[in-house]
Amino acid sequence: MGLPVSTLLMTTGFLLVLIGMWGILRHRNILRIIIGFGLVDTGLHIVMVATGYITAGTAPIIDAGLGIEQATTRAVDPVPSALVVTAIVIGFSVTAIMLAFAIRIHDARKTLSIDALTESKW
Fold first, then answer.
1. pTM over 0.85, yes/no
2. Which residue has the higher pLDDT, 60 or 89?
């Protein structure tokens, strides 16, 4: 008997969030910061899916195999999965915008280091 899948998913998700936060806070290159954001985003998606997961659960469809009285204990919660689908689309859009800004910064400054962007500091 190993770890439950939900525990493994939670651990993996939080580990990805920590690695992504380290990447965002530690690195000065814009592309590495964007990659860190992607790791945080993916880690949060895994954590959200893990919250709705039930070991040996089934789809939340009430039929002959799943009665109303068993639905609360055996059915997997579909709300976190639906939220993750929306979050994936939003995260993809935000990443695309960040990459577009990175390309514009590189065209204007010929660097991707945030240390070279001194006029944006206050």
1. no
2. 89
